[in-house]
C-alpha cells in the first residue's frame, strides 16, 4: 500500500482542444451535422444502438441541460432512486466555454434493450451542467499545480456516492511528456451524501509523478461493485489517460475492501490479490500483483459485475481499439482480450468487420447492460473540429 499524502500536502489530451490547437484527428463528427465521417458498423450481435452520439449535436438532450461537448460519460447506478448518472471529463457548454471536469448528467430510466438511445433528464448540481468539484484549474490546490481532475469511475452504495479521479498536470499537446512519465499529480476519492450535489474530498490521497511517485498503480480505478461475498472489489492501474504513457504496459491490479471501511476512509484496510508461488489475498500490506503480463499500453478501463459475470473493457492505446475480457470472479482467470470497436476497421486483420469509430477511446461498461453477453459500452471520440463526444454501443458480446 503506498504511503498516502496529506490533504494539503499542464495540459492533457483533453485540454489540447480548449487551446484551439486545431489538429486534424481524423474524420470525426462535423459539428452541427450529426453525421460522423465514418459510419460505425453493426455492433457484435446487431442489437440496439451502434454508435449513437449522446452529445455534441445541436438540440440533443445533453445540450438541453447545458452540455455541448464532453468525453468519458462514465455510467453508474444512482442507487438511492434507481436513476443513472453519467460522469464526463473536461467539458464545454453549448457556447463552447470550458466547464472544467468532472461534469455529470443524469437519466431517469435506461433502456437496456438499446431500442432507444440514452437521453439525459437533468444535470448536476442544480439542473444545468456545471463542474462538480471546487478546485482551481491551472493553480495550486494544496498538491502542486493541477491542470484538471479527470474522473475514472463512480459508484453509489448505502446512501453515499464515490467518485475516483486523477489530478493531471501534463499530457499530450504543447507540453512534453517524455517516455516513462505519466503526467499525474495525485489521485483521490471524493464522496457525496446528497446524490452528487456537493462533494467532499477524502484526506487520503495517492501521490503521482509530480509528488514523487511516477507510475503509481493507484492512478486509475474501476469499481467492480460489492460482490455477494460482501467485499467491494476495485481494480486499478497506472494513469494513462493521455494515452502517451509508454511505461503503462497494460498492468492492472486488484484489491478489495470492506464497504464500511471504505466509507470511513480507512483505505489502508484493503486486501491485495497477490502472487507468490500461488495467488492469495494479502492483508499484511504486500502489494497486489498485476493480473496480466507486460503488454500494450492501456488507457481508460472499466470493470463491472453483470449478472454473475465480471466484465472488463479498456482502450488498447497500442492497437487503437476497445477490448473486453470476462471472468467468473474478480479473482479468477480472465479470458483473452476480444476486440470490439476499432479506430480502423481495415487494418490489422483482427479489426475486419468490427464497428469503426475514428479516434475512439474510453469504453465504459454500463452497469445496466442487458446481460453479460450483451453489454452497452459508452465510447469516446476525438473530433477534428476541436471537441469530443460520447457514443453508445449496445449488444457487445465480450
3D structure, described in words:
- This protein has 398 residues and is mainly beta.
- The chain has one domain: 5 Propeller (Tachylectin-2, Chain A).
- The chain has helices at 15-18, 61-64, 259-263; strands at residues 50-53, 69-70, 74-78, 83-88, 91-92, 98-100, 103-107, 122-123, 139-140, 145-146, 148-157, 160-168, 184-192, 200-201, 206-207, 220-226, 232-237, 252-257, 271-275, 279-282, 298-306, 309-316, 321-327, 338-342, 360-365, 375-383, 387-396.
- Strands 11, 12, 13, 14 and 15 form a 5-stranded antiparallel β-sheet that branches.
- The protein starts with 14 loop residues before the first helix and ends with a strand.
Report the total helices: 3
Proportion in β-strands: 35-45%
Overall structural domain count: 1
The CATH homology group name: Glycosyl hydrolase domain, family 43
CATH topology: Tachylectin-2, Chain A
The class by helix and strand makeup works out as mainly beta
- The whole-number mean of residue pLDDT values reads 88
- What oligomeric arrangement do these chains adopt? single chain
Q: Uncertain spans, ≥5 residues at pLDDT below 50?
A: 1-45
Elements, N to C (H/E) = HEHEEEEEEEEEEEEEEEEEHEEEEEEEEE
- Radius of gyration using CA atoms only: 19 Å
Helix content: under 10%
Protein name: DUF4185 domain-containing protein
Domain DUF4185: 58-393
InterPro entries: DUF4185, TAT_signal
Amino acid at each position: 500500500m503506498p504511503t498516502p499524502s496529506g490533504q494539503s500536502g499542464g495540459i492533457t489530451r483533453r485540454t489540447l482542444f480548449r487551446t484551439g490547437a486545431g489538429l486534424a484527428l481524423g474524420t470525426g463528427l462535423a459539428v452541427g451535422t450529426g453525421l460522423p465521417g465514418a459510419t460505425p458498423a453493426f455492433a457484435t450481435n446487431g442489437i440496439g444502438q451502434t454508435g449513437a452520439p449522446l452529445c455534441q449535436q445541436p438540440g440533443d438532450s445533453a445540450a438541453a441541460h447545458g452540455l455541448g461537448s464532453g468525453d468519458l460519460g462514465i455510467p453508474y447506478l444512482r442507487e438511492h432512486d434507481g436513476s443513472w448518472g453519467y460522469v464526463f471529463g473536461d467539458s464545454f457548454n453549448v457556447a463552447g466555454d470550458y466547464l472544467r471536469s468532472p461534469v455529470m448528467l443524469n437519466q431517469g430510466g435506461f433502456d437496456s434493450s438499446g431500442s432507444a438511445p440514452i437521453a439525459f433528464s437533468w444535470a448536476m448540481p442544480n439542473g444545468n451542467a456545471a463542474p462538480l468539484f471546487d478546485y482551481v484549474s491551472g493553480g495550486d490546490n494544496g498538491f502542486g499545480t493541477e491542470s484538471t481532475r479527470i474522473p475514472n469511475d463512480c459508484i453509489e452504495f448505502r446512501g453515499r456516492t464515490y467518485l475516483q479521479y486523477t489530478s493531471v498536470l501534463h499530457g499530450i499537446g504543447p507540453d512534453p511528456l517524455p517516455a516513462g512519465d505519466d503526467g499525474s499529480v495525485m489521485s483521490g476519492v471524493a464522496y457525496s451524501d446528497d446524490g452528487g450535489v456537493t462533494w467532499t474530498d477524502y484526506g487520503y490521497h495517492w501521490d503521482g509523478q509530480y509528488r514523487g511517485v511516477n507510475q503509481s498503480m493507484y492512478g486509475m480505478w474501476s469499481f467492480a461493485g460489492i460482490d455477494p461475498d460482501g467485499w467491494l472489489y476495485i481494480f486499478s492501474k497506472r494513469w494513462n489517460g493521455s494515452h502517451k504513457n509508454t511505461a503503462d504496459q497494460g498492468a492492472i491490479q486488484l484489491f478489495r475492501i470492506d464497504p464500511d471501511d471504505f466509507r470511513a476512509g480507512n483505505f489502508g484496510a484493503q486486501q491485495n490479490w497477490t502472487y507468490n508461488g500461488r495467488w492469495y489475498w494479502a492483508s499484511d500490506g504486500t502489494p497486489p500483483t498485476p493480473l496480466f503480463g507486460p503488454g500494450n499500453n492501456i488507457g481508460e478501463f472499466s470493470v463491472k459485475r453483470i449478472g454473475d459475470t465480471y466484465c472488463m473493457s479498456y482502450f488498447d492505446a497500442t492497437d487503437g481499439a476497445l477490448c473486453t475480457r470476462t471472468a467468473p470472479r474478480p479473482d479468477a482467470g480472465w479470458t483473452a482480450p476480444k476486440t470490439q470497436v476499432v479506430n480502423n476497421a481495415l487494418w490489422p486483420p483482427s479489426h475486419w468487420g468490427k464497428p469503426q469509430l475514428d479516434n475512439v477511446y474510453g469504453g465504459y461498461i454500463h452497469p445496466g447492460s442487458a446481460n453479460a453477453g450483451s453489454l452497452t459500452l459508452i465510447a469516446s471520440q476525438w473530433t477534428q473540429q476541436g471537441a469530443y463526444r460520447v457514443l453508445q454501443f449496445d449488444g457487445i458480446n465480450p
